[in-house]
Design brief:
Blueprint (H helix, E strand, L loop, with lengths): L9 E11 L2 E6 L3 E5 L5 E2 L9 E5 L4 E4 L1 E11 L11 E6 L5 E5 L2
């Protein structure tokens, strides 16, 4: 007998990995429409004190992060219980170095 355990929901999603403070997070690449003025940005989830990069989102907001790391296609799974209750959390994925990353929607 062979058992296969698969996530209830998993999608291949293009993500941009960013560093905000000492956290590495994944943002959906499609939600980023360009670069924005760092002077006008709000820090991503208040994680970084002095953002170096401003990312313009589709809704017109500009969020600040400390660094852009990389973009690529990642397998994103639904957040496990009880993390699915967090408002901005869209899922989890595995970084190229093996760490579990949170995929967020600011």
């Amino acid at each position: 007998r062979v058992g296969i355990v698969a996530p209830v929901m998993a999608d291949l999603v293009r993500l941009t990995l960013v560093r905000a403070g000492d956290q590495v997070l994944g943002l959906r690449h499609a939600s980023i429409v360009g670069m924005g003025d760092v002077e006008l940005c709000e820090p991503l989830f208040d994680l970084c004190n002095d953002p170096a990069v401003g990312l313009k989102l589709g809704d017109g907001r500009i969020v600040g992060v400390d660094a852009l790391l990389e973009s690529g296609d990642f397998l994103v799974s639904a957040p496990p219980f009880p993390l699915h209750l967090l408002r901005h959390l869209r899922g989890t994925t595995v970084a190229p170095d093996g760490r579990i990353l949170l995929v967020v929607e600011p």
